[in-house]
Design a protein that fits this description.
The protein is of the alpha/beta class and 366 residues long. The chain has 15 helices and nine strands.
Length: 366
């Protein structure tokens, strides 16, 4: 079983890519576009990723953000499962303190039944939103308690996924269905397989926990670049072999946008940066157009933020993006690069993944 789990976790690099390449989709909604448009783009990117040899496709849980239509990862993943055949699908991630562990086990057991052997369950401990929204989600204002209880919530979730609460436990007779219990029921033919669990993080907490538990780790380099190397070092130092992995495996999320010319790349990332300016100053909205961003009067403080933010976005021509990704992988030692393309238009995002695939000589459809 350990070999099977490790095989699902570790991808294969294609073409000249130094490591496997994957996709992180925030299902961004641009000004003048709808959530329906964004979700159609997600299907197009997932199909492209599958055809071109990207290893996995993850969606991230966010709430109360008009420009991000990924509040329900499990629903989106079910939709993507119906439109793909091979690419791995998963959450990057589900914010576990927002949910009862049993609910997540049921949702991802259902996804596993829909797309056997290609579902990942990535988990985070942040709310994926502001404090007021988190309180509404959790029906409590004791938010720190949820984060502090993350290891206990994780252990409970894994017990539900494996259906192995010990005798005497109050949940011993509770089963996540679909799940392994169906294989042990009279006449049961249900697969006992369950999605591999990943821990996500932007600091050292989940890095250490993932290492201690011998789980794969995903780091949010795309918004916490200064912590990437320390967190990966901590993960590797803390790693203990498990039934899942015999050696560490870490991917990093990377903002990367390739366009046919460098000037257009700068226009697109400026619009994405303006969206972040508004989000960080309590004015979340739809992703602005490049024209709106070019006309916007940035304050000196906002200009400083944009420069800092875009310094961690690998953007430009396909060759420039490939070079930047290669350098980042060498510097961090990441085992996998998960690319997120943030732009106003879905066509720009789709084209970016196509250009990056071409730059690395990834497989082309027959």
């Amino acid at each position: 079983m350990a070999a099977d789990a490790a095989e699902e976790i570790r991808g294969t690099a294609h073409g000249t890519a130094p490591v496997p390449l994957s996709v992180l989709d925030l299902v961004t909604v641009g000004a003048g576009r709808t959530a329906t448009d964004a979700l159609r783009t997600s299907v197009d990117i997932a199909r492209l990723g599958e055809a071109r040899g990207f290893h996995r496709y993850w969606v991230a849980e966010h709430h109360s953000m008009p420009g991000v239509a990924s509040s329900s990862p499990a629903v989106i993943l079910a939709h993507l499962a119906a439109h793909t055949d091979r690419i791995r699908l998963g959450s990057g991630g589900v914010m576990l303190p927002n949910h009862a562990p049993l609910v997540i086990a049921e949702q991802f057991g259902t996804l596993e039944a829909m797309a056997p052997g290609r579902v990942d369950l990535g988990l985070g401990r942040a709310p994926g939103t502001d404090g007021a929204t988190a309180a509404a989600l959790r029906r409590t204002d004791r938010l720190n308690e949820g984060a502090d209880d993350f290891p206990q919530q994780l252990a409970e979730l894994i017990r539900f996924l494996d259906d192995d609460f010990p005798d005497g436990h109050p949940y011993r007779r509770i089963h996540a269905v679909p799940g392994p219990v169906q294989a042990t029921s009279p006449g049961g033919v249900q697969s006992a397989h369950r999605p591999p669990v990943w821990l996500l993080g932007s600091s050292g907490f989940s890095a250490r926990l993932a290492g201690t538990l011998g789980l794969p780790f995903a780091f949010a380099h795309h918004f916490s670049a200064q912590n990437t190397v320390p967190a990966l070092d901590l993960y590797r130092e803390s790693f203990r072999p498990s039934a899942v992995l015999d050696a560490p495996y870490a991917l990093i999320g990377v903002s990367a946008l390739a366009t046919d010319d460098e000037k257009e790349a700068r226009r697109q990332v400026l619009a994405a940066a303006l969206n972040m300016v508004r989000l960080r100053t309590g004015r979340p909205g739809l992703v602005p157009t490049p024209e709106e961003a070019e006309a916007y009067d940035f304050s000196p403080m906002e200009e400083e933020f944009v420069a800092s933010w875009n310094s961690n976005v690998i953007h430009g021509t396909p060759d420039e993006v490939r070079s930047g990704l290669d350098d980042l992988q060498k510097r961090t030692g990441a085992d996998e690069l998960m690319l997120t393309a943030n732009a106003h238009g879905g066509d720009v995002r789709l084209r970016s993944y196509e250009l990056i695939a071409d730059a690395y000589g990834l497989p082309t459809p027959a």
